[in-house]
Amino acid sequence: MEVSLLPTEQKGKIVSNQPKISIVIVNYNTGKLLENCLESIHRSPCHVLDKVVVIDNDSKDGSADFLKQQDKIILISNQENLGFGKACNQGAALISADYVLFLNPDTIISSDAMLALVGRLSAADNKKIAVCGLKQVDQNNNVSRHCCDFPNLTNFLSRSVGITSIFPRLGHVLGNWDHLNSREVNHVIGSCYAIRRDVFEGLNGFDERFFLYYEDLDLSKRVAMAGWSIHYHADHHLQHFCGGSSKKVPVVRLFRSLQSKIIYADKHLGATQAYLLLTVNVLFELPIRCLLCILSLSPSNLKSTIFAFTLLLNWFIRVGLARDKN
To answer: pTM for this one?
Structure first.
């Protein structure tokens, strides 16, 4: 069901030559966070903002109900949880602005930040930049070190067996860089991901096989393969509370993370490495996680871990490695 709350005069094609950006937010049981996010968008009007689209993935907490009384928002209410990537594609299909900003509902953003994104992407000397992200801080103003390189099998395996907790450089997250300066990177986190609309459409959007996690990393990989660059902008920031709805469902969170890593490995590293990653996950990561749960005297976490890996194996046996790669 679609509920259009956008004033008639704002519908349709953009007539101004000034670059515009539209925001797509996917909501799933995020409670008050969504309302706070939208309040931050509308608190200080931004002349480059064209539309705000919220895709609600069948939330059960009433977090999207208040939108029916809001102005200048397009609400899409799905009757089931379609996953993050598919919901983002739904929202992007309604956009005609030059740029699309995929924004998490657990963020707080200012008009200055939106202007910075548009300014960076529309600058004459930045014609090869397709994606731009912002510096992100938590509720204590600590800077999040979230930018990444594209992972290889060593990165994935090191994380699976816990080596990255001792040798973080073996992971693909750029944790040793303080994120205080602007630079070109391989990937900016999908919680604030601004992309040229024509590039997004040309790459067929997010790969919807990624239900949750790694869909943004996969898109960045395809952006780079198409010859575009990605920019991290540190001069402006937004607040990101991290976790959102996924913290409430640890079983689903772990299962989807494991699943998406397998899909990413198959797509970009090859089937052999994907099978090897799955084997290491089951034979090494599962026992390590279970041992840590036992040592921490956490039977609930132990149960959740076993259930998540059971879901992973059931999915793999039922579906296997799909070969229809974007």
So the answer is: 0.91
